[in-house]
Amino acid sequence: MDEPIHTKLAPPMWLGNQIRRDMLLARLDTALDRRLTLIQAPAGYGKTSLLAQWRARFDPALVRVAWLTLERDDADLKYLARYITLALDETANGESERNAASLPARAAVSAVVNRLARETLPVVLILDDYHHAEGPEVDAFVRALIQLAPENCHFVIASRDYPWLGQSALAAEEQLVELTASDLRFSTHEAEALLARAHGEGLADTEVRSIVARTEGWPIALQLASLSLKRGAAHRSLVERFRGPSSELARYLSEQVLMTMPEETREIVVRTALLDRLTGEAVNLLCDRNDGWLVLERLEEQGMFLTPLTPERQAYRYHQLFAEHLRERLERGDSDRFRALHRRIATWFAERGETAEAVGHAIQGDDDALLATIVEEAGGWRLIPQGQQAMVERALAKLPEAMVSARPRLALARVYLEIKRGEMSHARADYDRCAASFDRADLSADQRIEVRVVGDVLADYENEPVGLDDLLSREALLRTLPSNDHLILANVCETLGAKYFEGGWLERALEPTVAARDHYQAMGSLYSDLFTRFLESRIRHAQGRMKDATAILATARAEIESNFGPRSDLAANCAAFEAGLLYEQDQSAAALALLDWAVPHMEQSDGWADVYVAGYLSAARAHAAEGRIEDARAMTARARRLAGRRGLRQLDLLAALCEVDLLIDQDFDAARVAADSLGLDVLGRADAENSSVHRPVVTAARLCLAKFALIDGDHDTALDILRALRRWAAQHGAGRLLIDVNILMSHGLRALGENEAAQVCFDDAVGTAMFQGFIRPFIDLRRFGEAGIDATLNGAAQLDRFRAQFLKGIARTLAARPVSTSAPGVLSDAEAAIVAHLSFGYSNKEIARLIGMSPDTVKYRLKSVFRKIGVQKRRDAVRVLHERGLIVGEAPAIPE
Questions:
Q1: H or E element that contains 426
Q2: Phi and psi dihedrals of 479, rounded to 5?
Q3: Please, what is the average pLDDT of the chain?
Q4: Which among 708, 605, 711, 696 is positioned nearest to 656, based on CA atoms?
Q5: For the whole model, what pTM was predicted?
Q6: What integer is the mean pLDDT of 155-160?
């Protein structure tokens, strides 16, 4: 199954006697002016033959035409993505094929679109026999390709069924060409040319018209009639027998072909028609022979609708209509033998490790026990993360409930499928039920480990908090696992690292994260490896090591763009985390440029809570930083809607807390209402070590409580909260959190007159931030940190050059940024002192001398005040400040 069938990338080598269909070819030529051409007709209408003729008309130097014949296995996006990649670039190496096969659906779309974007010529992608692979996932995949591919790309799809690929919109834009069965029927002239080849002499016009009328121009019927005539059938009696629906006609004509065969050959053909891909070994298996390859050569020579799948004739397949009739014939005539042969084939494929084929034949063999054994021995649930989800789903749908529940790997596979479909309540109920049952069963140690691992996967998707004791238990589990089971080990290590990180145990999180990467690399899974890099970057960021975090993501992004494309699912996840770091560096516009495309992309993929938190909340804060408050609130509301749909409580709470935090600076009264509605006091006082509330939620809630207390003047309460946070952050190495905590503590201590202690806290915040490039904490906490900036810049102690440069840059930034005037304490203490002197008409130099600031600092502060109240002149500023009660007393006349 790992070896691609390259003849799927070109029309079949045998297409019968082709009649040139010039009128249809002319209509197909318009495909180069349209986005989608759809050829839909039942079996045997010559769709493949027509497309083969059309494809042969193109000069490869002028038009790039890619062909792919779809089969049932291509309903699994793993195979479809791989074959489309091969079709577009037949020189692709094996690694690029495997990379395409390992991608999730959205990432695979991005990879194909990126490949198309590199093509300078017009590109035509022909998907033949689309009905074999059609399904919701494949339709969504192809629909996305049609929508996102560059303008020089054109899609031609041939199918028995009518797929839904956005035709209505394409038709409205005149981007659709459709050919149906009525278009594909043979004309009398075409039928005459075909039958004349078979009969050797011209048929009478009335006979040709009669055959065309009886067959309704059905091309395959005419092909089969031609074959019957070649074998000596009387054409007059043949015409008389052409009655009834097309399906009956196909059966009759197939019988005519079968009747000309020796009995031994007929038996071989009937048996071997059960397989889509024939080899000499398969013939030997089904027919109890040892000359299978010679048999296939003879059948090909006899024209038994047998097509070689490779130029070297290493495998064959029958014409699908012929094979389908033979299968129906055997099933109706001898159902026991039909099922017994399928069971024999299923066992053969299972022994060869070709699980997908084995499952298909076990289903046809109607042997539930065999089917269950095949899936279970192949790995059961383990097949799903290896890209076999569709096959497992098909197998479990066939099996009785009792049989699935009785086999651990199958029961776990059902749970895993429910997880991947987002059916979390069903997954939890089924897991709890089967876990309870397995507790009483006599399972091996390996089976119990697998039950535990799937339970951990479920808990991770549910995003429920995990305590330290449970994580230590997971660590102990690692020491009991087989050292060569990289799938299990990588899964356990990665989830362990993620949960340690979520709980704030940053140093503990690093080791399993790096170990998970090693296991993914041993498996050759770059895709999974990259997720460990995202996690490591987030750990470094939380530690306050932003430069390391940025470097890790830069390296990851380069590998993603090289291997998966700049608009893949992985690229969107990487962009979400990169945007968070850009925001920290006060590059909100650059952050939003990434998130504008990444957030919608993330919403369509199989994401997890942390990437949504990074994407949505970075976008909300960046919008607020750009002054777009309504956009910021819309983003938090969007996050909460998705959290509700996917049952992600942590995302819901963090989005709500983000909105409260933004409102504190924009609308204090509204922030109070939102905080009370959320239950901020309860969240902030939760025991995050052992509670149903995540550590990031508790931390965010406590920071909000501290801000409310500081603004209300309850400095002692605020400092109690902040001291507890600082102790926790210091113990866990949470350097980024320490920046916020120290800025807030410096404000509270300064308000209590403890200026020296306040300055120590502020200096600690600056020391952590300045060499790592954390700028945004000082802007977001401006009302709490401006006094610290002023005191540091104007203090008696000599500042070192780096610290002075860092703080002066922040001071300039703050002076240039507006702040909402609706919150209490809109003016900082320093600004209030300046405007008090401003109302008496003092110049900047005079104010600077009176309050002990530099003239430049006064100038920056005044610009900030002007922006806050929406004026440009000093006189207007004094008037507005008096109107708002921010200056007490009568406003004197101030010169321009």
A1: helix 424-439
A2: -70, -15
A3: 84
A4: 696
A5: 0.61
A6: 92
How far is residue 66's CA from residue 82's CA, in Å, rounded to a whole number? Answer: 14
Report for 452-466, 586-600, 826-840: range of highest mean pLDDT: 586-600
Rounded CA-CA distance 96/82 in Å is 8
**By mean pLDDT, which of 11-20, 307-316, 497-506 is the weakest?**
11-20
Residue among 9, 139, 127, 160 nearest 75 (CA) = 139
Half-sphere exposure of 159 (CA within 13 A, CB side): 20
Sign of CA dihedral 271, 277, 19, 265: negative
Q: What is the mean pLDDT of residues 799-812?
A: 88
Could you tell me which residues come within 8 angstroms of residue 18 by beta carbon, excluding any fewer than 6 positions away? 49, 52, 53
Task: Determine the Cα–Cα distance for residues 558 and 665; give it in Å rounded to an integer.
Answer: 38
Looking at the chain, how many residues does it have?
A: 896
User: Which span out of 368-372, 463-467, 492-496 was modeled with the highest average pLDDT?
Assistant: 368-372
Report how many helices (DSSP H) and strands (DSSP E) the chain contains, helices first.
48, 7
Overall average pLDDT of the 504-526 stretch: 91
Residues 6+ away with beta carbon under 8 Å from 668: 711, 822, 823, 824
341 touches 270 (CB < 8 A): no
Segment 160-187 mean pLDDT: 87
- C-alpha to C-alpha distance for 866 and 816, rounded to whole angstroms: 10
User: Do 862 and 893 meet the contact criterion of CB atoms below 8 Å apart?
Assistant: no
Instruction: State what percent of residues in the chain have pLDDT above 70.
Output: 86
State both tokens at 793: 């810049």
Instruction: Map residue 662 onto helix, strand or coil.
Output: helix
Of the candidates 209, 60, 47, 211, which has an alpha carbon nearest to the alpha carbon of residue 121? 60
* Residues contacting 664, CB < 8 A, separation 6+: 671, 704, 707, 708, 711, 823
Distance CA 410, CA 413 (A): 5
Long-range contact list for 100-103, CB < 8 A, 24+ apart?
101/387, 102/78, 102/387, 102/525, 102/527, 103/527, 103/564, 103/568, 103/569
